[in-house]
Amino acid sequence: MTKTITFNELRKIKDQLPSGSMRQIADKLNLNEETVRNYFGGRNFDKGQSVGIHFEQGPGGGIVTFDDTTILDMAQTMIKS
User: Fold this and answer.
1) pLDDT digits (tens, 9 = 90+) for 49-60
2) What is the domain extent for residue 25?
3) Distance (Å, whole) CA 46 – CA 77
4) Pick from 6, 48, 49, 50: most CB atoms within 10 A?
């Protein structure tokens, strides 16, 4: 399912995550932790990769479109619990 939010909204979600959440998400999905960080706007492509996310410059930090919302859904679940 495709989803679009602003980059600022994405950073707000990232900032609300409890400590260690990036590692937990990475472990559950068998991904490199840097790949999860890149999903939230990181830019370490030497150790991680880009997965199902597209950035476009604009107001509110720009627009972020997700091809795959699995990581985003997990993050939002962690914030709610």
Assistant:
1) 666 778 789 887
2) 3-80
3) 29
4) 48
